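Colleagues,

Please find the record for the two-part complex below.
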Amino acid sequence: MNNRISVKELNSIIILSVLGFEILLLPKICHSLTAVIAASLMSLVLMTIAIFSDIDIYDNKLWQIVYFIKNLLVIVLLTKILADAVSFVILREMKLFEIILIITLLCGYCGYKGIEPIGRISQIIFWFVLLFTLYIYIMSIPDVKMDNLFTAVRGNELSGVIYGFVINSGEIILLVKNRLAGDKTKLFRSVFAAFLLFVFISGVIIGKIGTVGADNTMYPFFELMYTADLPDIVIKRQEGIFISLWLISCFITLFLYYSSTDILAKKIFHGSKYVTLVIMAVVFAFSYIHLSPQATMKNYCFLQIVGGIFTAFIIPLLYIRRNRK
Amino acid sequence: MFANFEERIKYIEDKFKDWGDIVKRKFYVGKNRDRAVYITYIDDMVDRNLIEEEIIKNLIINIRLTPPENTKGNAFDFYIDGGVTTADIKNAKDIDEAILEVMSGNTLMLIEGCDEILVISTKGFPKRGVDKPETEIAVQGPQEAFAESIRINTVLIRRRIRDTRLKCVQSKAGKVSQTDVALMYMEGIADNKLVEEIKKKLADIKTDMVYDSGYLEQLLEGNKYSPFPQIQLTERPDKTAAELMEGRIALVVDTSPFVILLPAVLTSFYQASEDYYQRWEIMSFIRIIRYLAGFVAFSLPGLYIAVSLYHPSMIPTQLALRLAGARQTVPISTVVEIIIMELIFEALREAGTRIPASIGSTLGIVGGIIIGQAAVDAGLVSPMAVIIIALTGICSFAIPNIALVSAYRLIKYFIIFTSAIAGLLGYVAGLLLVLIHIASLDSFGIPYLAPLTATDRSRRRILKDTIFRFPLKNKKNGHFYSEMESENIEQ
């Protein structure tokens, strides 16, 4: 184990993050197709900056602490978002703390194992998840109403640009680029694919259920999955497969944040053995704080926007200032 | 150590005190019968005919008939050249080494007045001949399997690779058992660093006994707490030869009919030698079936529990109603039902391996069909549970490697446990935990999931012989393991 990750593996992780948390959030928060396109373009810019910038969040004590706290909050909120979604879709009778506990235990262990196995499993499951998810969206294209799309092509591009910060693909690149083995310019494949996926998926969701429908539905992705007219040539009820694959995509993003937070914590606390357990305990305790699913999503978006602006503008400025000195 | 001839004999006889099966003889040679020779060996571990015809007869009769002109001047060379007419003869470093050789089936010879201690290769212990493979059966292709003799096994490999680059380095493992181990590799194809690493690991083995290659397998594995095999065992010489050509290293252990192949990756356990003896289309199809069967073997009971307990809405309505109806009379929960059925199947499987072959089929009929049907009729278990267990069992037999099947058998219970706790979430969590565990394993520096992941450069070519088996003319003479090793070092 050399704790390195290949370009192919990182490409897989970026796309899987789109197919996990992003498709859960983006169609819900962007209220128009133009906003989706603006958000996707913004994320494209952010990912490009992340690829070419010299920022290394692991090499400075201050950034280590800032990113440790930020990552911890991201994990807490993503765990809560995932637990809410799981509870809503498949485990309504299970207590939320039990779901959070299972997610925390799994992610803590996988994060502790390091970036290398996470990259490997991402590369292996990548095509299964991508093809099955695309299958749902492609089969939903006949249900897309042009009225919905044209209604959606209106307004609020600025908010779309801001929501570009919610897409965490750029941050993922930033978190693992110091352990990347290979030519980083090859990451553009996934960056561009992620952009196309955002636009396509959000376009299908908004086109099918409309902006109002997306607004009123808690999880537009699941709505689309349940209402898609899928041919039952293989099995009649296929949602179990899609939910499983969606869950895996979400877990991959969480594993990555855990792994990164684990490294930061070990750097800050001088390699203490118990940091993983402490992180898991903190995440479990804070994820269980009573917040409605909507409020959790809002808080997550706020955190990512603030964190994204900080990363995209403030850190480079501070670096430039330091270099001038 | 003992310059005196008699002292040496006394030392040897003290060591072999109370050995009822030791044969020792002191006799005199030379024209005037003026020089004593002492030989010793273990009865029936040697080729007695060879000793009598090529050593004793020559020394006692032939030399006396044509006596040497000067037996005093260069006696040792004389007796070796004229008295012992076998080729495999060596001079032991000390008397203890020579005693060790006697225990390996060789003959020790001392000549009065000479410092040297001769060890003559006379191995001839009883051994099983080359038989048919029992665990890696192939419909088409060679029907030879390794035997318990290290020499038979190395010969079976050499017969298939007639190349001077095939090296065979012999050493011993086990402080007390002193088991012979032959390390075989293709020079220039296998990674030199890996060869050296394995030599070092073999030398570092501190255990007393190595009875079988299974012992060595467990001692050499990197992650000793993983149920997944990180070293492959095979009983097929053709497979061993093919793997040597891919850059792997073979360890042939005396007294074991299984040869160790290393490094080993997950996909190597899904490959059988027969894959290359039949048409590529059908074998590619069979390989895909094996992978699917492998997945079903460890995950189906967990999935059934998750769906039937937590998400019955995911089952088509008609089927769900039928399942519920069938389970009405079953007095135990689905989880307990599946676990009990799995354990009964494990017991049947275990009994099947111990039971004499002549009544094995009876056990299958009584255990599998009659008891299964009676249990369903009595309402003790549901028909669906029987189908799930039977499918799991059948699928596990589709995997060509018994070590991987054993790992899946254990993993299956873990997935059952996680699914029983949290339905589909637990099922996915269980699968991911297993996957992360496999992804973090490596075998002598090569990622366990290679070439499915963790490699860029040679991946495309190697993948042609992983999940699919492309036509042989597309299979270039590449050496997967050596390429992976060098790539991994560079990363």
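Chain B touches chain A through 31 residues (CB under 8 Å).

Comments are welcome before we finalize the supplementary table.
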